Amino acid sequence: MTLLHAKELRLTFGSRTVFDALTLTIEEGERVGLVGVNGSGKSSLMRILARQSEPDRGEVQLRRGASVTYLPQEPSFAAGATVASELSAARAPLKEAIEAHAALSGRLATAGEAEHERILAELAALSDRIEHLGGWDTAHEAKRLLDRLGVKDWDRPVAELSGGLKKRVAIARALLHRPDLLLLDEPTNHLDADTTDWLEEELDRLSGALLLVTHDRYFLDDLVDRIVEIDPGAGVTSWPGNYEAYLEQKLVAEEQASLAEHKRQRWIAQEVAWLRRGVEARRTKSKARIQRARKLLAEKGFRRPEAARLELAAAPRLSQKVIEAERVSKRFGEREVIRDASFILQRGERVGIVGPNGAGKTTFLRLLLGELPPDAGKVEVGARTKVAYYDQQRLALDPEATVYEAALPGGAGAGSAGSAHGEAWVELSGRRVALRDYLDDLLFPPAMQRMQVKALSGGERNRLLLAKLFLAGANVLVLDEPTNDLDLVTLNVLERLLLGFDGSVLLVTHDRYFLDKVATSILDLEGDGRVVRYPGNYETYRTLKEQQLEAQRAERAERAERAEAGPARPAGAPGAAPRAPEPEASRKRRFGFKEQRELEGMEAAILAAETRKAEVERALSDPATYQKDPLSVPRLQDELLALGAEVDRLYARWQELEALRG
């Protein structure tokens, strides 16, 4: 059954048409991913569907009685709101349904026979609604969501919360509504990877329909069953399946459209040549052919979607030492954020930094960059290290400056520095390019270059800041949440740029897919001051960390079992339990010649396994591996996991043999 139908929507901003003749239908329970380049109108469409703004033309029809909840990128709250009041408002429909159920139940005992059946039917309907809205315990569900989202202070004013915590309260509020249609605009921004995993599971359990805008490709792959793509200045194209299926279908469609366009261009060339010969137009056939030729010339042909062409200015070659931190610690009041952390960034490494919100990822970056002094330890930066730092607050952009001014090498107000006759120039890959042309390649045409930064969408501001940083000629890129708000096409461009970058990269992001594609190692800030480094990409890190946690759980269980059993008493001592007969298999297990030979060869076996493991780790941390033989990367990652397990097995066997010999 159709839940929502948007018909012939048109939206313009000044002379710019955002979309036109846009028609979209969402069925009950459907999961839809909304994609499109930055500035194509994804957030604007979401606001129109949520009835928070109006289109210039067209209408939105919602099924009678259906409810819609909208979570924008930057959620808003009522003045003076607390966490509890916001969630109570979200629970209001559930509370009303429970109160109505209680009132009806009270009338049931005194109801006559005729009214009795009607009340029972109403109670059944109210019970279904209560279950749909989350169940009978209204407070328990709210507290469960807040605890899992890391929001501890139930009565705290929302105005005192950080941007990340505000987003979490808004997520809890949206989930508590249990609407028929949930509209989510970049819900994973400001969420750490573990919370993103949890949110994915929570959304998967919802019974209502979902329309989702996100740059998290794993989110799209796992949650949606249809992709809707906004065509800039036009309508939408619908693709069945998840994001991976969409990419495959779109590639085939573009190849077919490209072939059709090639045929059309050949036909146009033939018709133009025919027209130039000055064929007599008096005959009916000639007139019809002329009309067809003119119509063909007027048609809009196929053009491949444009992608921002991000480029890097030439940078000096790094010295042997890039950035090194030795036993660094940092405390804010009573809270120890970083404790005794050592870290070496080598040439060509791309290190992903992960951890829960508040664990100190940005603090650690600022320690490495010298923006914060450590309380203990030291940080050394190589003599030839030149850093470009992307801060997630985008403080390097003046909102009042024009796009062109903001991109100038010296920033807004730099005038014509580095320019000739008032035109600014930039150096890219050994060639001199006009700044206006560079911005045009980044999908900022001349009209947009005159716009103020504050008029850009979040993704467009993000793209502008990245472009500005890449002009700095840096050999170390420090990127703090660069993927927020970027469209999927630009994310792919950024991935390729970082994979081909000769320098080093420090990258804070919650985008799991991005880390899988880009990172050569992962630095995990665990939240208690500990900083642990893992080889490989994000998937390898998750596997290795899970193995580590499993081993820790097993060790704790063993310690608890020993503590419960109490101290062992010597056999035969008063109160000692009688020694059980030794099992036959155990009696036969003696240290013989075969075990002696195995033990003698164990050191060499461990050394060989650890040597190969180190070779694989070096290959995975070498950018050349990803450039020259990308198909070998999954095999190397699998081999690294297998080698880690083999080294653990060999050490365990070595200890077993030593125990047998003893």
UniProtKB/TrEMBL annotation:
In the record, what terms sit under GO molecular function?
ATP binding
Renumbered to this chain, region (Disordered) spans 545-593
**Can you say what this protein is called?**
ABC transporter ATP-binding protein
ABC transporter domain location is 4-257, 323-560
Arranged from A to Z, the UniProt key words for this protein are: ATP-binding, Nucleotide-binding
The residue ranges flagged as biased composition, category Basic and acidic residues, are 545-564, 581-593
Q: Which InterPro entries match?
A: AAA+_ATPase, ABC_tran_C, ABC_tran_Xtn, ABC_transporter-like_ATP-bd, ABC_transporter-like_CS, ABCF_ATPase, P-loop_NTPase, Val-tRNA_synth_C_sf
Q: Where do Low complexity bias regions lie?
A: 565-579
Question: Which PANTHER family does the record match to this protein?
Answer: ABC TRANSPORTER ATP-BINDING SUBUNIT (PTHR42855), ABC TRANSPORTER DOMAIN-CONTAINING PROTEIN (PTHR42855:SF1)
Which species does this protein come from?
Answer: Anaeromyxobacter paludicola
Top-level taxon of the source organism? Bacteria
